[in-house]
Amino acid sequence: MIIINKILNVDDYYFDVFMSVSEALTGFPVNELQSTGLAETYYTHILKKLEAATFEEFLTVSMNIFEKSSSPEQLKAAIASEIMDNPGMNEMAVQVITLWYLGTWEGAYINDLSYQEGLVWNVMHAHPPGAKQPGFKSWAIQPVNSNL
Question: What is the pTM for the complete model shown?
């Protein structure tokens, strides 16, 4: 029970590790992840859906990777070998990536904001239909990466 109380405190180092591993897994800087307004929501949502020990293990492995990696190349290699090639850690990493990109956990949206702020919209240079409209005369602007 002590671990659960400690990990639910978003001011602790586990939250910082969660944000750092989220940055490494998504390719988006921490400040952009924070700007979604969902960082603490996602962190606490994961804690409600998983056993605290499972999430803590994922974050501890992640923290160890950050501590021993002295370059971006070492970090990528360590994430590939210790997280992505490890079935238990890989499943958690995929869930975290999906959470940030789609705003879903096990196929369900976390909340309305998670749909609107999904990173997928930034990657596609699009807006979430029915939630954030592109603006007046946006149709007159040539799409990004368009061959037209």
Answer: 0.82
